Amino acid sequence: MFKLSEIKELVKLIDQTSVSELEIENEGTRLFIRKPGKTESVVVTHAPAPTYVQAAPQAVPAVDAAAPAAAVSAPAAPAAAPSDAGLHTIKSPMVGTFYKASAPGSAPYVSIGDKVSEKTVVCIVEAMKLMNPIEAEIRGEIVDILVEDGQLVEYNQALFRVKPE
């Protein structure tokens, strides 16, 4: 996962060089930066792929004028498979940083296969230097963890899928 500070640094670096496009894929997250003229375009997506780095020289395809000059999008959540019907999704109640454990090196609050109740803390979302415990909201079994430790999450972003009891 790319940190916002890393993305900003890459945009500055691309702006200072003759490289007009940069595409990086790491652990299923794709970062694409394009420099058409004086503006930068940044897109971050999440899709399983091998890790590689590619830079293109000055040839830049035309850019849709209706598109924003700079856009940063959060990793897209994987599409729900038909077998996901009936699963409850625990979503982030705020924008912040997702942590699976109370401290680095500590055991995670929950893992896939763990049973949870409504009051079970499943993670922490840090927002404005405050650690906010997130509860499961439902009785069931954790079947999927949708974000990585230390990842920035958006309001209402899916964090976990739970098979209700």
Notable characteristics:
four-stranded antiparallel sheet, elongated, OB fold (Dihydrolipoamide Acetyltransferase, E2P), 165 residues
Please count the helical segments.
1
Helix content: under 10%
Radius of gyration (CA) equals 19 Å
Compute the number of strand runs. 12
Q: Enter the CATH topology name of the largest domain.
A: OB fold (Dihydrolipoamide Acetyltransferase, E2P)
Please describe the biggest sheet, giving its number of strands, its sense, and whether it closes into a barrel: 4 strands, antiparallel
Uncertain segments = 47-75
Secondary-structure-derived class: mainly beta
Strand content: 35-45%
Question: CATH class of the largest domain, anyone?
Answer: Mainly Beta
The chain-level mean pLDDT equals 77
Which CATH architecture of the largest domain would you pick?
A: Beta Barrel
Distance between the termini: 33 Å
Number of domains: 2
Write down the overall geometry.
Answer: elongated
**N-to-C SSE string, H for helix and E for strand:** HEEEEEEEEEEEE
Strand order of the largest sheet: 3-2-1-4
Name of the CATH homologous superfamily of the largest domain: RNA polymerase II/Efflux pump adaptor protein, barrel-sandwich hybrid domain
